[in-house]
Write a structure and sequence with these properties.
By secondary structure, the protein is an alpha+beta fold. It folds into two domains: 59 residues, no CATH class; 69 residues, Alpha-Beta Plaits, CATH 3.30.70.20.
């Protein structure tokens, strides 16, 4: 295991994720497509299953954040961006670009539009809609 932990971890690709736990495991947070169920009784499980069964078809996910590289601390200037928006994002939707670590990327499917990245700046940061 690359992180050195004693617990096995697997990557699961799924449209919806139901987590049955009294407290959410580390790294699991409520977001679109993640259903946290802490009280595992038959009625709640059936209600959750019913809600998920209804989530069939196409889903339009809006892009909440506009990243303007011209006003970002790094952007086109060839210096590393400060990364404050990365640390403020509770959904881990912002990261450094793989091909150019001086810049950031916004994963619009993971972004929930909470505005935490915008609150990291007094002015001239990412814009949220």
């Amino acid at each position: 295991m690359p992180d050195g932990s004693s617990q096995k971890r697997y990557e699961i690709k799924a449209d919806q994720l139901v987590v049955l736990a009294k407290t959410p495991p580390e790294g699991i947070i409520r977001r679109t497509g993640v259903h946290l169920v802490s009280n595992v009784d038959d009625e709640i499980m059936e209600e959750t299953a019913s809600q998920i069964r209804d989530l069939v078809g196409y889903f339009h996910k809006p892009e909440h954040v506009i990243y303007n590289k011209d006003i970002c601390a790094g952007g086109d200037k060839g210096i590393e961006t400060c990364g404050r928006c990365i640390t403020f994002c509770p959904y881990q939707a912002i990261s450094r670009q793989t091909e150019n670590s001086l810049r950031i990327d916004v994963d619009h499917l993971t972004c929930e539009g909470c505005g935490a990245c915008v609150s990291a700046f007094s002015h001239l940061g990412p814009t949220i809609y």
